[in-house]
Amino acid sequence: MMASAFMVLAAIMASSPPDARSPGSALINPSSLSPTKPDDATKRRLWAEGCRNGSQSLCYNYALMLRAGIGGPANPTEAHRLIHTACERGLLQACREERSDQK
Asked: Is the pTM of this model over 0.70?
């Protein structure tokens, strides 16, 4: 019984197209994908949304974009406020940034 099941499987495999026999043929080939990077305006919008939802690291990233005017108009006052808030809420990177701004 085991030998006949193996023979049936071997016959099916032999009749399948070569690409269907390759391991992982049902998976997407990562090299065939063309990932697109979000533009700066999209990143800024997503980081602003994450900041509104309470992510201090996204607030920090959003603040850096605001300060530099990346992906939209610059707003250094709002950037400073966001960095200060992120520092108060425990994001060490924001605290370092805030200290360097004060020098």
From this structure: no
Token pair, residue 40, equals 């700066």
The rounded distance, in Å, linking the Cα atoms of 74 and 58 is 17
- Contact by Cβ (8 Å): 48, 62: yes
DSSP for 3-55 reads: HHHHHHHHHHHHHS-HHHHSTTTTS--GGG----PPPHHHHHHHHHHHHHTT-
Tokens describing residue 59: 């607030």
Q: Quote the distance between the C-alpha of residue 91 and its chain's center.
A: 20
82, 44 Cβ separation under 8 angstroms: no
Question: How far is Cα 92 from Cα 57, in angstroms, rounded to an integer?
Answer: 10
Question: How high is the pLDDT of residue 38?
Answer: 83
